[in-house]
Amino acid sequence: MSADDKNPEETVADGDGRLPSLDKVEFLTVTNELLIAEVAEYKGVAQRVAADFANYKRRIAEERENEARLANETLWRKLLAILDDFDRAVKAAPQGDQETDWSAGIAQIDRKFHTLLENEGITQINALGETFDPRYHEALVTLTHPEVADGMVLDEINKGYLIGEKVLRHSQVSVSSGPEPPPTKEDSQLNFPHSQEN
Known about the structure:
This protein is α+β, with helices and mostly antiparallel strands and 198 residues long.
C-alpha cells in the first residue's frame, strides 16, 4: 500500500511514531468540551452555594442585631417607668426640702439617669405647647381651654422618648379642643326654659 493509499483518518507519528486517527481526535475534543462544560456547571453551582451562604450569614447577623435592638428597647421602656417615678419624686419634693441629703440624692439619681439616656442616643420628645402629632404623642384626654387653640398639647402626663429616629415611647398628653363655643340661641333656650303659664 502506497503513502497515497493510506486511510485519510490515519496520520503519522504520535509518541510511538504514530498520530491518533481523526476519530480519536474528535472524541478527545468532544470529551474535552464536555469536561469544560461540566467544570463550568460545577463552578456555577459552587458560586451559587457560596452566594447563598453569604446571604444566609448576612440574614442571621441582621436577625441577631434586630433581636438585640428589640431586647434593648424593651429594657429601656421598663427603665423609663422608673425614671418617671424619679422625675415625679423630684417635682414633689417640698419647697425648702431640696437641700436635705435624701432630696439631693434623688435629684442626683434623676440627673444621672437622664445623662445615661443621652449617652445612649435616647432623647426626650418635645410635647408641651406643641401641635398634637400622633407619630410622637398619645392623647389620653381632650380638654377645652379658653386660651389654647384646638389640637395643642396642654399637659404632658408621661414624657416620650426617641431612640435615634425611632419612637421608644410616645408622650402621653392632654390635648386642647380649643375654647368652649359660645352658647347658641338654641342652647340658651334649652338651658333656661321660660316659665310656663298655668
